[in-house]
Specification:
Elements (H helix, E strand, L loop, with lengths): L2 H15 L3 H19 L9 H24 L3 H15 L8 H17 L8 H12 L5 H13 L1
Helix pairs in contact: 1-2, 2-3, 2-4, 3-4, 5-6, 5-7, 6-7
Length: 154
């Protein structure tokens, strides 16, 4: 068992003992998503910590989107629960990049891509190829794409 998955399991056991319903249900759902990912495909396999982290990030994103949808639908209580679940999952993810840090990384990538001959909005793919490995797990793809578009537009 990977160290991150083991930590999730230990935290789940602690949450159950403490009778923390929100934390235990969130961790239980996340561990289920990890197990589902492990058994998908032709053979069962053990996920690495990076793969487990990607599953956690996907689950956290689902919570943010659900909270937004509930808030727009006028269901504040459900939105608050989803936000709280997202906060619990964020504790297992690396610290997210701030707007300034992200903009600096993207600006350097834009300069690198334009130096290689890419220009204008068509350079988006080239810039994203440079940026994605540098920000993997530390910034959501939508945020990165928005900053890239903004800097390419001038």
């Amino acid at each position: 068992m990977t160290t991150l998955k083991a930590k999730l399991q230990d935290d789940l056991n602690a949450a159950i003992k403490e009778r923390d319903e929100l934390r235990s249900s969130t961790l239980r759902l996340t561990l289920t998503a990890i197990t589902k990912e492990e058994v998908s495909g032709t053979t069962k396999r053990e996920l690495s910590d990076d793969e487990v982290q990607k599953v956690i990030a996907k689950e956290a994103k689902k919570r943010r989107e659900a909270a937004e949808a509930f808030a727009q639908g006028g269901r504040a209580e459900s939105a608050e629960r989803e936000k709280a679940e997202g906060v619990i999952l964020d504790a297992y993810l690396p610290k997210q990049l701030g707007d300034d840090e992200l903009e600096q990384i993207v600006a350097a990538a834009v300069a690198e891509a334009t130096g290689a001959g890419a220009e204008g909005p068509r350079a988006m793919g080239a810039v994203m190829k440079i940026v994605n490995p540098k920000v993997a797990g530390r910034a959501e793809g939508g945020r990165v794409a928005a900053v890239v578009k903004k800097l390419l537009a001038g």
